[in-house]
Amino acid sequence: MKFKGFFLMIMLAVVLAACSNSKAAAPVEIKANEDSCDACKMGIEDLQSAGQIIMDDGKPLLFDDIGCMIDYIQTHNPAYEAAFVHDYQSKEWIDFDKSTFVQDSGIESPMSYGIAAFEVEENANEFHQNHGGMKYTHDELIKIDLKSIKKGDMEHGH
Fold first, then answer.
1. Please, which residues have CB within 8 angstroms of residue 32's CB and are 6 or more apart in sequence?
2. Does the keyword Signal feature in the UniProt annotation (predicted)?
């Protein structure tokens, strides 16, 4: 009986240690005018339009535009631990996979995809009502035909 109790204590300690060592992926700092987009290779200048994917191995992939991040996901279908974009209103990093998006040609972004992310769906609804465009869930957005929404496609050589 003593051995069983000792074994249970060891197992509990291992489980607790494993839980305390695992921390959720967090967005990395992007250095404006130093870091480059992993999709289009342009320098990242506008941090508010930037996005990032944290791969399963912890390596960050950086993007200058949400559209570039979508393009990368559609092209490479990467397995990732987390992905982040900026909330259009709060300017804070938010979870890409849980966001709601509005796309409109009036939304300025470095590569002219015109995609804005919202952490709160009601904020996206309100923005969409006031400014127009198309509203997307995460799942809808990653299936979108990017060429059909991009303004000035020839201008950027994408």
1. 44, 45, 46, 47
2. yes
Q: Model confidence over 54-101: pLDDT tens digits? A: 999 999 999 999 999 999 999 999 999 999 999 999 999 999 999 999
The token pair that represents 132 in the structure block:
């127009």
Residue 77 carries which side chain, given as an amino acid letter? N
Instruction: Detail the DSSP E strand segments found in the chain.
Output: 51-55, 60-63, 80-86, 93-95, 100-103, 115-118, 134-137
Nearest to 149, CA basis, from 120, 119, 93, 109? 109
Yes or no: say if 107 and 115 are a contact pair by the CB < 8 Å rule.
yes
Among the listed residues 79, 69, 66, the one whose alpha carbon sits nearest the alpha carbon of residue 112: 66
Instruction: Give tens-digit pLDDT for 121-151.
Output: 999 999 999 999 999 999 999 999 998 888 6
Q: Which of 17, 72, 14, 65 is nearest to 39 (CA)?
A: 72
d(CA 33, CA 140): 31
Q: How far is CA 33 from CA 6, 43, 74, 131, in A?
A: 57, 6, 26, 30
Q: Residue type for 143, please? A: K
